[in-house]
User: Fold this.
Amino acid sequence: MEYEVPGSFAALAPPYSDREKARVVILPVAYDGTAEWHSGARDGPRAIIEASRYLELYDIELERDISEVGIHTLPEIPPAMAGPEHMIQRVYEVTRGLLSEDKTVLMLGGEHTLTLGTVRAYRERYPDLSVLQLDAHADLRDRYLGTAFSQATVMRRVRELCPVVPVGIRSLSEEEHRFITETGITPFYAHDLISGNVANHDIVESLSQKVYITVDLDVLDPSIMSAVGTPEPGGIDWYQLLGLLHEVARDRHIVGFDLVELCPQEGPAAGAFTAAKLAYKLIGYIFEGKSE
Assistant:
């Protein structure tokens, strides 16, 4: 397999970027083969890592240098023309190997379909896993454009493995609405979060103790994050998202997470930097108060 090296997240140097010592490993995956509208998410991982070079390593909120956790950046996994199932399997195999090293994996997409690969690996390791889905779209179709494996079906496939708690949803099809009703899934819709009808505590209580978080960046309002393939008006804001993630990290064990669907060319450079800062903040929340 051929790789390209995109560089070190946050421009970290040894020892904080060493794979052996790092507690977090960044897995960049350059793939967007099932893009529905704007393509370009394949360029997202590289843009996030490049933008991360301009992060301040000291975090005001947590009063610490988060990078001391140790963050190792893997070479970028390039797209494969064999189709989404091939890419899902590749992501699964790499993630499974990293979990055998007791690493916390941060997968940078690429399109949302890739999440199925990481969740498969995490579900093997943690049978009681649940998935917190932060997303504008339900992604619960059974098939889309002739395939069962796409960014429009990914959470349907994930739910076949473990429970899913969707948060920030503000767009879905009639088919997805029927599926939600028939299966008893309880989405936390964006309008309820923004109006205050739903508290972070309600979301946390819906999760098991072991949580994997998947962040489709279109969960944020386009005024904050326009650089996505399928923007949707009415999203949550930066501090709402951070508040939820911090509460989940305090009350549950976040075992891994991903950030997907950044399309750098669809918005200003602020989009890539926002994604990089979100990744860095969540690493800080996960390891807050934990000894080295």
Summary: Residues 84-100 form the longest helix (17 residues). Confidence is low (pLDDT under 50) at residues 1-5. Residues 9-286 form a domain with the Arginase; Chain A fold (CATH 3.40.800.10).
